[in-house]
Design brief:
alpha+beta; five-stranded antiparallel sheet; globular
Length: 125
């Protein structure tokens, strides 16, 4: 299983409508095991991240009004990428794991940037 990142709109009745992933877009947010081993890891928590560690216990919904803060968190994790990769790499080698983390952070960023245009939110599940 894999974690996916999607964009959603909040309908007037409060229901969430998940939008289709644009063709050619990578919606991977990592492996299911990354909920705890990466996004919920002590090294990610040590950065002060508050959104992605939620994945250790369930899915993450970032509402439209929180997307800017979520983007700051993604940038923060990118700034600490080497330390996060070093402390969470198993069983892959460091270079491969670092590249995978960088790719997933970019996927999260692209989805979040898309939401700003439509005033939507980000769902990682």
């Amino acid at each position: 299983m894999s974690l996916s990142v999607d964009v959603f709109l909040r309908e007037p009745d409060g229901q969430r409508r998940i939008l289709d992933v644009p063709e050619g877009r990578d919606d991977s947010a990592g492996f299911e095991s990354w909920r705890r081993t990466v996004w919920g890891s002590p090294s990610v928590r040590a950065t002060g991240a508050r959104f992605l560690p939620v994945l250790a216990d369930g899915d993450l919904e970032v509402e439209a009004e929180d997307v800017a803060e979520f983007l700051r968190e993604v940038a923060l994790l990118r700034d600490h990428l080497d330390a996060i990769a070093e402390s969470t790499r198993r069983p892959r080698g460091l270079a491969e794991h670092r590249a995978g983390l960088a790719r997933r952070l970019r996927n999260l960023e692209v989805a979040a940037l898309d939401t700003r245009v439509i005033e939507g939110g980000v769902l990682i599940w």
